[in-house]
Amino acid sequence: MILLGKSGSSLIRGGIFWGIVSSFGGSRLDKIERDILTRVRKRLSASSAVLDVGCGIGNLARAIAPYVRKVVAVDPVEGMIERANMIGGLPNLEFQVKTLDMCLNNGGVYSAVLCTHVLQYVDKPDEFLRNIAKLSDDGLVMIAVACLGERRSLLASIISLMGAIGIMPRFHQLTFLDVRSIIELSGLNIVDFDILDKDMNIIWAVCKK
């Protein structure tokens, strides 16, 4: 998962956790990732350049690369990027160990920014979205967010406990309304807002300046 610096403090504490997670990751897309790939392709073209923020082991970035001009996939956890490079890639795909702050400082403008399963770990999510939108020439941002705050469940309780005792980064129990409010506070406009998975309450949102 990506580190944002000041607005992503809960993620900063999760480097060891994500390093362990990376060692168990496989290269095949799951059902939700396949759905995301289909939706992403509808928004992009062969000339698109994509930044994948918080790419993990790079499965989505690897799947998107054949359909666009360029993909830069970034994650601050070295273990994630090492695993991504071990799995392999394509000539137009580059994996980098970077925080979002580093991306902002280094410049670079993309056709779109993809950010999946990151927002729920960020302490200042509206600031996070506002910043990643700066990296897209027309502010196109595509996000997927697990909204475990939509209903009480054993999984949500376990994740909250693990975050409280420091086993994993703090996980914010967002609702669908929370995500809409976060996007509005960021100053972006909602282009698409849909449920990817009803069991996990995963939201797909497309935003633009």
UniProtKB/TrEMBL annotation:
Query: Which SUPFAM superfamilies does the UniProt record give?
Result: S-adenosyl-L-methionine-dependent methyltransferases
Q: Which residues form the signal peptide?
A: none
State the source organism's domain of life. Bacteria
Q: Which GO terms describe its molecular function?
A: methyltransferase activity
- Please verify whether the record's keywords include Methyltransferase: yes
GO BP, sorted A to Z? methylation
The record's listing under CDD domains reads:
AdoMet_MTases
> What are the UniProt keywords, alphabetically?
Methyltransferase, Transferase
**Protein name (record):** Class I SAM-dependent methyltransferase
